[in-house]
Design brief:
Helix content is 31%, strand content 20%. It is α+β, with helices and mostly antiparallel strands.
Length: 439
């Protein structure tokens, strides 16, 4: 079916990408300690080393082969996969780690900076997933190549793996991203959505959790195709309006558009070097380019900014931030460059693998620009190490604090979801439990 005649979508030519990080908490632990790669690894919420309480937040694919699943009690996980320290190095043992959310958020921030560099329309729905509208930036002709490049960029620059689904609707894109995990890429073009869904188990339809799937099975509906052929009035009488909604999703109909959440709190750009760089000239060129890009983006969004900062990543993944605040909001590209370069001078002789520039404390009121008199009195400095802990607690604002809104370029409005539950309330398809489950 031609895209211009595709029914049930927000726009005829809409292209939506859903990016979902694979076993994200486990992947973060493996990034921090590469020797854990390929090992059966369990990350537990409410778990402490050597203990048996808590629940599984996520498990690596190697651990899942032993039947370890998200939300499972740690005590049960230990029965299926004994802790290596307790089993004298036996082959069929696993490694258990407690959740370190600060660190995971700092890694997520790096991923989401890349996503915001790819599209001006990004909707973050959890710590490890987001939707992007790439209609204007990429289109259908370049969607597959774009998604492949995006996955490669995330893996090379951040050190974690993402699966990407591309489809004409948000619901189909989410299902597509889960089809070939881990490290998957699935593109469902306009006109192919119904066929894509037809033979899928019904619990893979967006919005259908385990309880609903069992209730649908009682009605004789076990596949997405069966759900699409069902009587919508019967579904509505059984499930309310949600019944008609999942029926539409199974038919490939979804009129939602990718919408960010309110005005951004910050804007940033980051870029990695192929290899760690020590020459100050190369670093300055990179920062100059990034500063211009950030200032231009702020100009296009008609945003002024009161804080200008940089991010410096030293090998392997040691993250530092520096920032300076002004007396009031301004819009001055030259000033962004000047302050960014000044902040960079501290790292003149240190090896650097990635640099970023950020403007924050944004103002969209269009009021009078602040005077820069007394500029030096408003400076701030803070630092964040790779574990996300502020190194300088005396800073007047937490510029070095690692969080999804600290230096991620996510343009967040501060409305964050629980760590692994999307904004539609559907269980995370990668098996990573919501932290809210263990509160």
């Amino acid at each position: 079916m031609d895209a211009t005649r595709l029914p049930g979508t927000a726009r005829p030519d809409q292209v939506v990408a859903h990016v979902d990080m694979d076993c994200f908490y486990a992947a973060c632990e493996q990034r921090r300690k590469p020797e854990l790669s390929g090992e059966p690894l369990v990350v537990g919420m409410g778990y402490e080393d050597g203990e048996t309480h808590g629940a599984v937040a996520t498990a690596s694919y190697e651990a899942r082969e032993y039947g370890v699943e998200s939300a499972m009690a740690i005590s049960e996980a230990l029965e299926r996969l004994p802790r290596r320290a307790d089993a004298d190095g036996d082959a069929d043992t696993g490694i258990y780690r407690p959740v370190d959310l600060d660190y995971y958020e700092s890694v997520a921030a790096e991923v989401k900076t890349i996503l915001h560099a790819e599209s001006d329309t990004v909707r973050e729905v959890s710590i490890d997933e987001a939707y992007l509208d790439i209609t204007d930036a990429v289109g259908w002709d370049g969607a597959a190549a774009w998604a492949s490049d995006l996955r490669a960029t995330i893996e090379s620059e951040v050190g974690v793996v993402a699966s990407v689904g591309v489809a004409p609707t948000m619901s189909a894109a989410k299902v597509a991203s889960d089809r070939e995990k881990p490290d998957g890429l699935v593109v469902v073009e306009p006109g192919d959505v119904r066929e894509f869904f037809a033979d899928l188990p019904v619990d893979e339809v967006h919005g259908v959790g385990p309880v609903t799937a069992r209730q649908l099975a009682d009605l004789g509906i076990e596949t997405a195709g069966g759900l699409a052929r069902a009587d919508p009035e019967v579904l509505e009488s059984r499930f309310g309006e949600r019944g008609r909604e999942i029926w539409r999703y199974a038919r490939g109909e979804d009129t939602r558009e990718v919408t960010p959440r309110g005005d951004p709190k910050s804007l940033s750009r980051e870029s990695a070097f192929t290899e760690a760089v020590e020459a100050i000239e190369e670093k300055e060129r990179k920062v100059t380019t990034l500063a211009a890009a950030v200032a231009d983006r702020a100009h296009r969004k008609e945003a002024r900014y009161q804080t200008i900062g940089i991010k410096v990543v030293e090998p392997p993944f040691d993250v530092h931030t520096r920032a300076r605040s002004l007396p009031g909001p301004v819009a001055d590209a030259d000033l962004v460059e000047s302050i960014a370069l000044d902040l960079l001078s501290e790292f003149a002789e240190r090896p650097v693998r990635k640099l970023g520039v950020r403007v924050s404390n944004l103002d969209f009121s269009g009021g009078e620009q602040a005077s820069l008199g007394g500029f030096g009195d408003g400076s701030e400095t803070a630092e964040t190490a790779a574990n996300g802990s502020p190194a300088d607690a005396s800073a007047s604002t937490p510029e070095g604090q690692a969080s999804l809104t600290a230096f991620d370029g996510t343009e967040s409005n501060g409305d964050t979801d629980s760590a692994a539950t999307s904004d539609d309330g559907v269980d995370d398809t990668d098996g990573q439990a919501s932290l809210g489950d263990f509160g």
